[in-house]
Amino acid sequence: xxxxxxxxxxxxxxxxxxxxxxxxxxxxxxxxxxxxxxxxxxxxxxxxxxxxxxxxxxxxxxxxxxxxxxxxxxxxxxxxxxxxxxxxxxxxxxxxxxxxxxxxxxxxxx
Length: 110
Prior knowledge:
0% strand, single chain, elongated, mainly alpha
């Protein structure tokens, strides 16, 4: 067999396989199946999804109330144009270390 004939048969086979797969997917849809119950249109958003989200029930909502007893407020509140470094107190610097003593020569061992 020549290379051209082999290539032509391979391309034809791939097309035939594609047609068989398409028919296998379309046949059940064309045959028809059990009818689905009609959907009510009260929650319809014109067919895009399942309607608007439902509002949370009172048991799902936030509980509110006072803050927890172990909650502590922040040290700084950023409510104006100032930067955080301007609002925080300056850190204390460590004291400078004393210089190490220089070694002295012993006059006896010279």
